[in-house]
Amino acid sequence: MSDPALPAARPTVDPRRLSAVPQPAGQRAPGGTQGGTVFDIKGVDVFYGDFKAVKEVNFTVTRNEITALIGPSGCGKSTLLRSLNRMNDLIPGARVEGTVAYHGKNIYDQGVDPVEVRRRIGMVFQKANPFPKSIFDNVAYGPRIHGVKRTELADIVEDSLRKAALWDEVKDKLKQSALALSGGQQQRLCIARTIALSPEVVLMDEPCSALDPIATARIEELMVDLARQFTIVIVTHNMQQAARVSDKTAFFSTEVNELSDTRTGVLVEFDDTQRIFTTPSDERTENYVTGRFG
Ligand SMILES: Nc1ncnc2c1ncn2[C@@H]1O[C@H](COP(=O)(O)OP(=O)(O)OP(=O)(O)O)[C@@H](O)[C@H]1O
Ligand SMILES: [Mg+2]
């Protein structure tokens, strides 16, 4: 199950040590209590065929923090996010250049198994996408295909549903179809399905964009709680959400290529979230976060 080409992930935290009570980002120790760089992204360009969608991206992701990627539509947030767990490999013509170092090892190096990369670095999508299976089978799916023993599945399902703050709502109907859950519940189920594989990092691409404000608040609380155990990178169009939940923010924008009349995404600024939203150093960031642009 482990890939010798990748450095060992840190051991999974004992779930019993995790409090079920979510805390706002401000109440967590800055940088998480464990510190440490999980990703060091250096000079990353992502192409779709000849088209350079994002260029020269450099930033770091710190353990137990929430890092938000923000910026106008088309600036490459989803593209960059997918490059962090080799999800772009699944798109024909997509290509990543530069280095995505995960605990010091480039995940694009020869010999690195992309399936193992995606187990360590899980992903939750914009639209909840439960399988047309029971609630139990959705969460058990990943562990099953990774060969986890049948006798261990029930514990993993319960633990994952608890961590995703869904257990109390579904514990009496685990055999029912996941498709009968509400949108917000489906998204929490997808989070449970992702964390059932004990990843270290959870990537989330606009996980609340299809949800109402109450379901959104629930997921935001959940993210803050999950950041005690996991490292989270989230794409969001919701400025308040980025400001509320994240520790660091990367602001992307686009540059027009005059010759080809195409737009390439660039990272304008990366800093503590508080700084990005109060005293950004680039005028483009200020215009965006104050709503004057985009
Ligand atoms: N599968 C693909 N094939 C070709 N080009 C793509 C593909 N996916 C994205 N692109 C292009 O890459 C650029 C960045 O797209 P991306 O979806 O990453 O932007 P985004 O910042 O996530 O936008 P949004 O906020 O609308 O989700 C865009 O010009 C887009 O058209
Ligand atoms: Mg996107």
From TrEMBL:
GO terms for cellular component: membrane. PANTHER family: ABC TRANSPORTER I FAMILY MEMBER 17 (PTHR43423). Residues 39-279 form the ABC transporter domain. This is Phosphate ABC transporter ATP-binding protein. Gene3D superfamilies: P-loop containing nucleotide triphosphate hydrolases. One of its GO terms (molecular function) is ATP hydrolysis activity. The keyword Acyltransferase does not apply. PROSITE patterns: ABC_TRANSPORTER_1, ABC_TRANSPORTER_2. One of its GO terms (biological process) is phosphate ion transmembrane transport. Keywords: ATP-binding, Nucleotide-binding, Translocase, Transport. It comes from the Bacteria. Residues 1-36 are annotated as: Disordered.
